[in-house]
Specification:
two-stranded antiparallel sheet; globular; 67% helix; mainly alpha; Arc Repressor Mutant, subunit A; 2 strands
């Protein structure tokens, strides 16, 4: 038996849960990109805005950790959204070299429009799944995330 007979991955590699999760995420992200584009937004902009909305006052480093991206990627996105008037930096009350991130009124308006787009994508998915499967899938995804965090 040669190494070529064994192959670089198991025969069931494309049937794994992790692959199905990745395929679903890629499909959702592609649809978000397509539907947010008319608003002049990318899915990454939406993710950043909604995270800052949920946790106002985050620093760039904290935001990078929560979004699982590099600090450089966050800095670039923050600069872009700040230039658009959707995000502002404010000095941290106790640490003069740290800046907190906050949505502006324009940022909240943009997030409201973008969230309506994302909610429609959610509706499309949940309508196809039905209420029982939606509830079950959500619970299973939380369990999968917990299982990974426990390792």
């Amino acid at each position: 038996m040669t190494q070529e007979d064994v192959g670089p991955v198991a025969a069931d590699a494309l049937d794994r849960v992790t692959w199905a999760l990745r395929q679903a995420e890629m499909a959702v992200q592609a649809l978000k990109e397509q539907r947010l584009r008319p608003l002049g937004m990318a899915a990454a902009h939406y993710s950043l805005l909604i995270r800052v909305h949920a946790d106002p006052g985050l620093t760039g480093a904290e935001l990078a950790r929560r979004l699982n991206v590099t600090p450089q990627a966050v800095a670039s996105l923050v600069a872009r959204l700040e230039d658009r008037g959707q995000l502002e930096r404010r000095p941290h009350p106790r640490h003069r070299h740290v800046q907190e991130l906050h949505l502006t009124d324009a940022g909240r308006d943009t997030l409201r429009l973008a969230d309506a787009v994302v909610a429609e994508i959610e509706r499309q998915i949940t309508e196809k799944l039905g209420p029982e499967s939606t509830t079950r899938l959500t619970a299973l995804l939380h369990q999968a995330a917990d299982a990974v965090r426990e390792t």
